[in-house]
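Record LapA family protein, 164 aa.
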Amino acid sequence: MHFRTIILALIVLAIAALAALNWPTLAAYSAVNLGVTTVQAPLGVIMLGLTVLLAIFFIAYVLSLQTSVLLETRRHNKEMQAQRELADKAEASRFTELRAVLEAQHLQGQNAVLERLDTIDARAQARAKELENSNAAYIGQLEQQLRDRRPDDRLFVPPSREFP
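=>
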């Protein structure tokens, strides 16, 4: 129990105890001025009745306030849940979009690597073809020189050494 509730309960018990212990004095008739007229009535009972009526109105006000706060909290929670779901959907959409962007970048990078590999392969094949042509030209040139050679021409022969 809250401290305020305990204090309120003690005050109500004190009023009830004082009313019970002093009932003959509260119920005694006296002249009560109502502003327009004066009547004979028990002033203590009237004051006690007004206090009870004030307590009833106070309890009704607190209950209506509590009900309106609960309804407002419920409405607020529903709005928060709707906003949370909307944010979750937006986050999922962002993740999907991010995945698509990453896949596109990956595909773009993969295509760039494949294009580069194709370029390197084409250059390597062209270079191999050039080397093949160059070697064939050298071999052809050597064959031509061998054909054009006179029979008495010798290939490089080192100077002979005479052996003793």
